[in-house]
Structures are given as C-alpha cells and as structure tokens.
Amino acid sequence: MKKFRVSLQWKFFLCIVLIIFPTLGVIFTWTGIQNKNQSDEQVVNQARILARQIVLTRQWVTDCGGIFVDIQSQGAKDIACFFDDKLQTNHGEFQRFTPAMVTRKLSQYSTRQDQYRFRLASLNPLNPENEPDGFEREAINLFRTQKVNETFRFANNSGHQYFQYMVPLYLEKQCLECHNREGDSVNAIRGGLSVFLNVEEMMSAAHKNHLKLAIAGTSLIFMTIFTLFVLMRRFVIKPLKSLEEMTDEISSGNLEARVNINTGDEFDKLGHRFNTMAQSLSVGRDHLQERIALATKELSDANRELQTLDKLKSDFLATMSHELRTPLTVVRGGIDYLNRTIKKEDNRNYLEIIDKNLARLIHLVSDLFDYTKIEAQKSEWSFDQANLSVLIEEVVEIISPLTIDKDIVIKYDNPGDILVEMDLERIEQVLVNLIENAIKFSDRETEIKIGIEEDQTHVTVGVKDQGVGISEEHLNSIFQKFSTVPSAGINKPEGTGLGLAICKAIIETHDGKIWAESVKGQSSTFYFSLLKKRPQPSGFRPAPE
User: Fold this and answer.
1) How far apart are CA 106 and CA 109, in angstroms?
2) How far apart are CA 521 and CA 466, in angstroms?
3) What angle do CA 534, 497, 331 make, to 5 degrees?
4) CA-CA 20 to 30 A from 273: which of 8, 55, 343, 423?
5) Of 387, 527, 534, which Cα lies nearest the Cα of 461?
6) How many other C-beta atoms lie within 10 A of the C-beta of residue 201?
7) What is the C-alpha R_g of the chain?
8) Which of 43, 46, 52, 31 is nearest to 155 (CA)?
C-alpha cells in the first residue's frame, strides 16, 4: 500500500487551521451566545422595570382609594365601569377609577404608541377582557403553587416576535371592597400583570450583530491563518527548502554547494553548520579519493598476484591428482591381491583399514581432479537430449545396495518421459552425490524421497532425506569447496567437502540452479533445476564425436 505523504508546509497549514478555526470559532460562538443572553437579560430587566412601575402606580391608586376622572374627558372614554360611583362637583361629573381601570387605561395608551402593552389576567375576572390566555393561566397557577415571583417567555404570533412577562398581583385590604365575593383573603394571589414587549427590532438588531460578528470572526480567522502561513513559509519552510536543495546537491556529488540563510535564528546557525559539514566532506572526499587510488593500485597488484597463485594452485592440484592416480591404482591392485591371498584374521583387519583409507584417498583425488578441471574450464561437455526420469531410475538402482546396511528405502515415482538437454554423465554424477549424501546422513530405517517436477521451460529435481538436518547458518556455505556440515554424534559421516561444490559447478554450467532447504533435526532437501533446452554454453569445448 502506497504511503500518503504531505509536505511540511501543508502539515503546518493543517495544524494552524485545526488550532485557529476551533479556538476562534469557540470564542466567537461564546461571544455570540453571551450577547444573546445579555440582550435577553436586558429585555427581562426592561419588563421588570415596567411591571414594577405599573404595580407602583396601582399601589398608589389603591392607597388613594381610587381616583376620580372627569367623565367627559378623553381619559375616561372606552373604559367599562362596574360600579356606579360618581361624584358631582362644580367642574362637572367625575367617575371613580379603580386600580384595574387605571391599568386598563394605561394599557390603551401604551398600545397606541406600539411600544409595549400590558393587561390584567385573572382566573375569575370581573371584566371578561381579563380572561387569561394559556400562558397566563399556567403562570397564575405557578404563582399560587410554587410561590415564584415572575415568569416570562419569548413567543411568536403570526410572524411577530414578542416578549411576555408576568408577575403576580396580591389582594390588599383596600381590594376586598370589590373582590370579597370569592372569599379571598388579604395577600392572596388574585391574578397577574402581563406585560408584552415588541422585540422584533431588538431581534433584528441582534441578528445583524450576530452577522457582523460572524463576518468579523471569519475574516479574523482567515487573516490569522494567512498571516501565520506566510510567516511560517518565510521563517521555516524557506530555510528548510534551502537546506533541502543543498543536501540534494551534496547527495548528487556536488560537495561545493553552500546555503545562505540570513534569518539570524536557529536556522541561520544550522545553515552555517551545513556549510561547515559540506566543507569537511569536500576535504574528506579529496583525501579519500587519494587513498582509494592508492588502495586500488595495491588491490590490483594483490589481485594479479592472487590470480597467479590460484592458477599455480589449480595447476598443482590438477598435476598432483593426475600423478597420484597411477600409484594409487597400483596400490589398489596390491590390496585386492592381498585380500584374496591373506587368510589370517588380524592381517585381514589391517587390510580392511588400509582399504578403507585408500578408497577415501582415491575419492579425494578424483574429486580434486574433477573440480580443478571444471574450475579451470578445461572439462569437456557433451550436451544431448536425454530422458532425465529414466536417468534417475537407473541411478537409484545402482545406489540401492548402499541402503541395505541402514535398512533405508528410496522412493521414486517415475512421472514418465522428461527430455532435457544435458551432459548425461555429469548430471548422473550430481544425482549420485546427492543420493549418497542422503544415505550417509539419514537415520536407520528411514526413507529417501526423490521427486521431479516440470513446467514449460524448466525441470526441478528434489532429494529429501530423514536425517539430522542442516542449520540455517550452514545452508549457504555447504556448496563452497572443502566445506563440511558439522554433525553431532560419534558416527559423524566423513567427506572431502568437494562433492557439493562439484555439483554446483556442474549445474551452473548447465545454466541451472542448486539449493537446499532443511529443518534442523528432521530432514534436508536438495534441489536442482535445469533448462529443458539450453543455449550453447560459451567458453567450453564440445565433446569429440
């Protein structure tokens, strides 16, 4: 999955946005809420003052026992009189106004000015116009049951917003003259004073203020983000870009690159350190190139000397192994003759020891001879189409007698004809070596499995034993010459350490691959793969016909 990468400046930008937006957003939201609460509190205070003034006016009228108003005056019109309480004077006829009538008249005046209005409400009104609405009815019950002193609400009526405030009205001793038929007592709640304030203008102003606050807040947020982003680019991103360009130049080989950061801060110091580092790298490179040139010359001379020594070693081993073959063959013939003629048991034991070590020496000389010829590319190869599955079957039949002593079973299921272009004798040598190793390293009464698989271009052979296994650290070294696998136990199999190296050289000459897989203490499996049809190898002479 491809990792999502974001540049540093955009990371800074996202951090600024994620910090500034919520912070200032919360601040402006809180300010808007506070302004709204303050506006609401202001409306409530206005209603309280107004209600208090009305209550005080009613109190004054009550304390005066009512007031007399000229019936013919403008102030006496449109007021229902429930009591025939008139007074004749030299100035005309006067009607006594109760606190309720005064309240009603003042409400008419306020309603005409469209600023506010108020009314009286009672559950048992003398005047039907004082019948309470739903809010007023609930408020009066609330005043009576829970002893609260006020209640209010913001409401909407046909698209017009208003504020309704209500306080309880208590019966006083002077009020019992008109309101004693229900059996109410002094200080009982008779009803309430309901004040209505028009808050549309206030709401409109508050909405405009909120809009202005939102515009100002948004502008401030964007200006803050923009300012911080510009400052961040100037004082952080730009110096980092300069340092990045310098490191790119240095990584591309230009050690003369320098950076110039004149910010007077930590980046300026860092730029000077980078320049000092580049100067040190430049001087070090020059010294290193001189040392590399000298070391290269020394290594070249040493390599030529090693190649000469290696050639001398290979020539020596090839000559020695060739020269040893003849005397070893003679000795072998003598040992065979003695085996046929000597009958004494002690002497035959000595001959058996000599014969065993002679066989190992002959095997070592043969391996040395083969490996030196392959390594020196002096071997002759004969690549022809051959049936690999048949070859495996023949090798198994030849080697089967070696399994008798350890009671080992070799399992091989012939899959049918598999034609491969190969040097038959060399591949037979590889199979013999791998199967013999499997027999040597297998426990008694186990089995060795040989498998073969093919595809359109390759064929793969595997030889699996049930032996001691090979540790992971030795799997890569076992194909090197003179390499042996450490094995626990007193019956450790011995070998020359050249068998697998010869197998590797043979398989690689076939443009193939050989490898091993193992589980320590359980089993080892050796594989080799060959091309079914290989190109003519270069550097080797074909076998004579």
Assistant:
1) 5
2) 9
3) 105
4) 8
5) 527
6) 9
7) 57
8) 43
Smallest CA-to-CA distance from 349 within 340, 339, 359 is with 339
SS3 call for 76? helix
How far is Cα 374 from Cα 37, in angstroms, rounded to an integer?
99
pLDDT in tens, 221-271: 788 878 877 877 777 777 777 777 777 777 777 777 777 777 677 777 777
Alpha carbon 316 to chain centroid distance?
63
CA distances from 540 to 220, 352, 378 (A): 84, 41, 7
Q: What is the DSSP letter of 157?
A: E
* CA–CA separation, 165 and 194 (whole Å): 6
Backbone φ and ψ of 181, nearest 5°: -80, -20
Is residue 260 within 8 Å of residue 242, measured between CB atoms? yes
Element (H, E) at 404: none
State the burial class of residue 362 (Cβ atoms within 10 Å of its Cβ: 0-12, 13-18, 19+).
Answer: middle
- CA 248 to chain centroid: 28
Alpha-carbon distances of 301 from 293, 298, 439, rounded to whole Å = 12, 5, 46
Amino acid at 358: L
Half-sphere exposure of 153 (CA within 13 A, CB side): 9
Give the start-end residues of each E strand in 215-346: none
184, 144 Cβ separation under 8 angstroms:
no
**SS3 at position 68:** strand
- Nearest of 167, 64, 50 to residue 120 by alpha carbon: 167
**Per-residue pLDDT at 360:** 66
Of 201, 268, 192, 283, the C-alpha closest to 235 is: 268
Q: Structural domains in the chain?
A: 1-63+98-254 (3.30.450.20), 287-378 (1.10.287.130), 380-531 (3.30.565.10)
Question: The whole model's pTM is what?
Answer: 0.42
Spatial contact of 530 and 512, defined as CB atoms under 8 Å apart: yes
Do residues 16 and 225 make contact, with C-beta atoms less than 8 angstroms apart?
Answer: yes
Is the pLDDT assigned to residue 126 strictly greater than 50? Answer: yes
Strand order in the sheet with 92-97: 67-70, 92-97, 86-89
